[in-house]
Design brief:
The protein has 5 helices and 2 strands, in the order H-H-E-E-H-H-H. The chain has helices at about 15-25, 30-35, 55-70, 75-85, 90-130, and strands spanning about 45, 50. It is mainly alpha-helical. It starts with 16 loop residues before the first helix and ends in a 10-residue tail after the last helix. A two-stranded antiparallel sheet has the order 1-2.
Length: about 140
Amino acid sequence: MTSGQPLPRDRDPSLTIAQVAERTGLSHDTLRYYEKAGLIERVGRTTGNQRRYEAGDLAWLEFLLRLRETGMSIADMQRFARLRAAGDATVAERLAMLRAHRAELADRIRALRHNATALDDKIDHYERLLAEEPQPGTDEPT
């Protein structure tokens, strides 16, 4: 989900892969990959072996999408997921990972702002050039 809005929660106890795909913007294949890659714990199944996602799965997917959107690598996301699955003994390590990721994000934001300023300066320069030159069809002396 790229809108920045929280994922809607259903009153239903579980959602199908199609419902989760629709709500998150992830494809069925990506959801299956996330499970196979260990990013999400094994999803519950019906007696017919259909995946059923719970509210906690959606909350975790929402967080994973934020990590992805902020540039965390799949390998680091997998490491974070393994630590999360290991329980409370890994809280300090998870906190350290998130702090490091946040610092990297802050550096990228600063770089993007710097680059945006350089682009704004160049845009201003070209706008001034266009404003100063005579427009075609005018009788201004050269």
